[in-house]
Amino acid sequence: MQNQGAVTAITAKRLTLALAAAGVIGGAIGAIAVNHNNVVAANAANAANAAAQANYVAAPTPAPPAAPGSLAPLALPDFTQIVSRMGPAVVNIRVMGSTKTAMAGPGRGQQLDEDDPVSEFFRRFQGPQNPRGQPRDTPVFGAGSGFIVSPDGVILTNAHVVRDAKEVTVKLQDRREYRARVLGADAKTDVAVLKIDAKNLPVVPIGKSSELKVGEWVLAIGSPFGLDSSVTAGVVSAKGRSLPDDSAVRFIQTDVAVNPGNSGGPLFNTRGEVIGINSQIYSQTGGYQGLSFAIPIDVAYRIKEQLVATGTVKHAKLGVTVQEVNQSFADSFKLESPEGALVANVERGGAADKAGIKSGDVIRKLNGQPIVASGDLPAMLSIATPGDQVKLDVWRDGKIVQIGARLGDASEKVQPSERAAVAGADGHARLGLSLRPLDPMERRQSGIASGLVIEDAGGAAASAGVQPGDVLLSINGRPVTSVDQVRAAVGNSTKSVALLIQRGSDRIFIPVRIG
After folding, report:
1. 70 annotated to a ligand binding site
2. pLDDT tens-digit map of 224-244
3. Which CATH architecture has domain 209-310?
4. Which of 90, 262, 291, 355 could form a disulfide bond with 258, CB atoms 3.0-4.6 angstroms apart?
């Protein structure tokens, strides 16, 4: 559940990722009066939906004839019939949860002396049920959108819309309201399934997002800022977008106006079919700024089937850590273009390890599908099933090698390793680094004679800017080639250490405070 105005921190160099669901914190949602057209009866809506599923196409506005030698002018679509026929199957979702807040004292958080007469006043009139300094539950409200996919009340929405919700209310276009049950939610793909106790409800037809084309007209219906049944339209800006967050989805990018409250609502094509779930926006303010992202319905429906059947979703994993292939890496590995997923680390005992994948491999294809950006690989794997057999095209030693692998289960824990942490004399991981020696191929390809590959970074090192895939060359000016040398160097330091890091073609010193 996302609070209104809750967005990730804004940096000067890039836009921040903001979830498009929002609500009001600490009070009831502001009532916004909206005038509605006459409500379409349920039976009439079902009949209309059936007609819409018969390859309905939005009627275009006539365009003037094209000039000789030019492309035919494009006709603008008429979305009115899609709105009237599909609108009744789009719902408004309100959620209520709670958060723990600590009472610092009366007024604006000031502490009063127990002998102060004002303190006695607050004790009398606020009651003793919440002793000073102890946390209490504060109501939190949020809102979003969704759409009905089954006449018996199955609804699709975003997982972040109902996250941590204690109560979920679904409001239909005809103003009826139902208490909803969350059948399941998958944070990795941001898909959730709700169920209300109702029958003969209008439903949306489901299309194929794989057939969507860049430049195609699309339409969104939802409840931005609590304004029920709001309609916005635009075009598909791009497909297969990987975003810098924890999601494993290749999004549909559009310029459809999506704002807080639109999350979980449907994205329609001109045939009136749902081809995506509106999920995220890029914004510096928390509001729409021209970029919105939708989860492809092909992905969402696979997740929906698992959630309805079991309430949970199993995701597959290959067991590798990958990074982007830039031009420098492409030149080093003699690749024709900077494309693919560079394997920085292979999880010991995982699917990739068993298949023979190594650090320094560049995965170019998965089951024949090209991998352009490194984010394409986890997105492809997210819709696979543990145990699936996959075929990988891997660039190794200047040529393509085909490797077969059986995918593992992403819910399984990584096997513990002796090199899992660099500890000081007190036995605690003071740097927060997971290290291993460079293997011969990595030394040959990188030109680094010796060093330790940083498989994972956390704690003090991560806060200082150390990243997985970096190579640790020295500590405080002394070369390191083993975990024992690192442990000794850290153990002899009391406040900070200077790490010499190789990152790509650059070498930089990074100071890390360990005191």
Report:
1. no
2. 998 999 999 999 999 988 776
3. Beta Barrel (2.40)
4. 262
